[in-house]
């Protein structure tokens, strides 16, 4: 059962057809935002059931422009969770607004709608609390309880901007029985195409929305706040004239990246089916290992399975999480930890005075969580070798 090659935590799945598609763009004479990017946007919007999709050069850019389009500005507040990556909250500071953290549920790592309701009620009484947006993060690819979140936002007159960096493709069933894909639920949804995500363009992102107004604003702000797209300006279709309507950013996606995106999107469902297969195999191979808790899919949910996050039951083990990660590595298996809660990082501690204990559920998961390798091109044998390594570690370090 011992591996003779190292199994990385993640490897992207890139087909020869995708390499050919990228090469074709390189030979075409048009490298930056153009027809491939438009095609990627149209296909992506269709895939997630949104009216509009705006391609950007990162998921972080999508979050930034979504908050901008939602009208977040100086002194405003955005509610999110501390159990996420730096990007989800840093964009709030870009706009001189402040995050308000709500703790997550221990089972899913997702924002707890009951705590969200309490926070919004408290915020209402406090005149200084200018909450504009709720920003749920679909941890590991399992969609948050969006129905109560959307209802709460409507009650309080807030916008919902989803961090769906992990959640392509994912769906959630509504109480009327309808299934809604992530990307078509909140006011705006932000996806990431970073190298480790479920669809990659190397670096890239997408903002989806049903609102033409927000899509137009995001598109304009993604290219210097200029009133017309560059490729229209420089091709026969457009003229040389443009106007700067706002001091925007440089967030557009290249056609080189979009060509990869179109190919990846074509295989998105197939890659998802392969991850699901590995999740089933992990589940079968690790079902009787009592010292760890396996991740699960809630009823009425289609989990994207970007991450496979197990939790260590510390009362049954003599080693901590850091040692567990080292023991996996010693057995030629890469792994990772998602996430170090934001409020424990120096910037947040110093600026807001957060101390350990401030968000107990996020910290509880953090101390116990390990993300195992999960990517389409793994083999069944790879999954069995991880399970075998875990059994060995648990046998040697069990209580
Ligand atoms: C990856 C990630 C992002 C940022 O995406 P980039 O494309 O790297 O900018 C945002 N939020 C979460 C939760 C992520 O995992």
Q: How many helices does DSSP assign?
A: 14
Q: Give the overall shape, derived from the CA principal axes.
A: globular
Note the gap between the termini.
23 Å
Work out the number of β strands: 13
Biggest β-sheet strands, sense, barrel: 7 strands, mixed
Overall mean confidence score, pLDDT: 95
Which ligands are bound?
pyridoxal-5'-phosphate
Instruction: Give the SSE string.
Output: HHEHEHEHEHEEEEEHHHHEEEHHHEH
Uncertain stretches of 5 or more adjacent residues: none
Give me some keywords for this one.
three-stranded antiparallel sheet; seven-stranded mixed sheet; 399 residues; alpha/beta; single chain
Walk me through the structure:
It contains 14 helices and 13 strands. It is α/β, with parallel strands linked by helices. Helix 2 runs parallel beside helix 9. The structure holds pyridoxal-5'-phosphate (PLP). Pyridoxal-5'-phosphate binds next to helix 3 and helix 4.
